[in-house]
Design brief:
single chain; 414 residues; alpha+beta; Jelly Rolls; 6-stranded antiparallel sheet; 24% helix; RmlC-like_jellyroll; signal
Length: 414
């Protein structure tokens, strides 16, 4: 790395000191950046502001470590960059993640926030009035005075009142009961490229107050292609982005596409094969309980393994055979300790399979990730939409391992 993170000084100043920049950023574009919020700037009373300040400090701490990790080249063989897996097939393919223009822009946006924190803070709020994001409640909320102050509907209330499917409700109740154990403890560990811990072990207020969304739990036509255990066993939170706590529309007149947050997926689940026209990435934050516990399948839209079966002006329908001989080689393992970073180009078809058979108490365990999308401002390209694949033999039903899988890819516009 061409720069040094002055960690002790920065933490002591609660994120107010300017962060040193990676070589590829122009200080003239960072210093004195001008922000346009998405929506009105939140207003708070003196009592509320005390808790907002705590939440803001933890947000800056999270973002600072994330930007440092992405640009850490100490062991990657890259320049100012960590390395990421981008395709799991044919032996796996990797790249220097900061070679991507969208990644450079996202890191630039983060440093613009870090180095102009007072101005950026005008776009920051607890979002406690948003009805569709929730508190995990329970022990996580009990460890956070901020979450206790800004009351949200809890997961328990959500699954009880808004989820009608009995099986999904049961999985959701298990997620709720065990959420604190899933996101804390020794099993949750940062990859080595991070300068310090940003998990719920160290930032309890942020993880409890960010506002979580169990995005598959409620009934929808999309969920005809989903599995009950993932519908009740998955949630994500957004810190920086259009739906998050820090909502910035433009910086220096340029649209902001960054979405940064975290995800939790219970073990013994298959996150279904899916795709979206917005790039996405994950840092794994879990020590595996056994070899190959966390497996990822990622196949690029131009892969020779993919066949086009239908096409129009906006969509391309493709198929690939996950049941072919040696199909297990299409999946690669990763963890916080090895191959922690995954980057999905637009329209990459991907899935996550999490083994729970080697866990002593699988109901208490999950894969926990730092999650981000880098170009989500482009509303032409299915912003906010995740498209689930389906069984080619039985369209409209979930795509299972061992069969021909069919997916609709968005035609990306530039």
């Amino acid at each position: 790395m061409k720069y040094q993170i002055l960690l002790g000084c920065l933490l002591a100043s609660n994120g107010l000191a300017a962060a040193e920049l990676p070589d590829f950023l122009d200080a003239n574009d960072i210093n004195n950046a001008q922000f346009q919020c998405l929506g009105e700037s939140p207003k708070y009373s003196g009592e509320d502001q005390k808790y907002i300040d705590i939440l803001w400090d933890e947000t800056l701490t999270y973002l600072r470590a994330y930007a440092a990790a992405l640009t850490n080249d100490q062991n990657s063989g890259c320049l100012n960059s960590d390395t990421a897996m981008v395709d799991s097939t044919e032996g796996g393919q990797n790249m220097c993640v900061m070679d991507r223009r969208d990644m450079k822009l996202m890191v630039k946006n983060i440093y613009q926030v870090l180095n102009n924190a007072d101005e950026a803070k005008k776009c920051f709020g607890a979002r406690e009035d948003v009805s569709w994001i929730y508190s995990p409640g329970g022990e996580l909320e009990q460890h956070s005075p901020v979450a206790q102050h800004f009351k949200r509907t809890t997961f328990e209330e959500f699954f009880d009142e808004k989820v009608t499917n009995k099986e999904v409700k049961e999985y959701g109740n298990s997620l709720t009961k065990n959420f604190y154990k899933m996101v804390t403890g020794d099993e949750v560990k940062m990859p080595a490229v991070f300068p310090y811990d940003i998990s719920a072990n160290s930032l309890p207020n942020l993880w409890a107050t960010a506002g979580w969304f169990p995005m598959y739990a409620e009934e929808s036509k999309r969920n005809d292609k989903n599995f009950d255990n993932i519908r009740g066993g998955y949630a994500y939170a957004e810190i920086f982005g259009h739906w998050g706590l820090l909502r910035i529309d433009e910086i220096n007149g340029e649209k902001v596409g960054a979405e940064v947050g975290m995800t939790v997926q219970a073990v013994d689940t298959l996150y279904p094969f899916h795709n979206h026209a917005v790039s996405e990435m994950y840092y794994n934050m879990r020590v595996p309980a056994c070899t190959n516990q966390f497996k990822t399948m990622a196949i690029r839209e131009d892969s020779p393994l993919i066949t086009t079966v239908k096409e129009d002006d906006t969509m391309r329908r493709v198929q690939f055979d996950e049941g072919q001989h040696n199909s297990q080689t299409m999946w690669l393992s990763g963890s916080s300790e090895q191959d922690a970073l995954i980057y999905f180009h637009q329209n990459t078809i991907h899935a996550f399979e999490i083994d729970g058979s080697c866990e002593a108490k699988p109901e208490e365990r999950a894969i926990v990730s730092v999650w981000a999308r880098s170009n989500a401002h482009d509303t032409r390209n299915d912003y906010g939409t995740t498209l689930l694949c389906e069984s080619a033999a039985n369209p409209g039903t979930p795509a299972k391992r061992g069969e021909v899988i069919q997916c609709d890819l968005t035609k990306v516009k530039w």
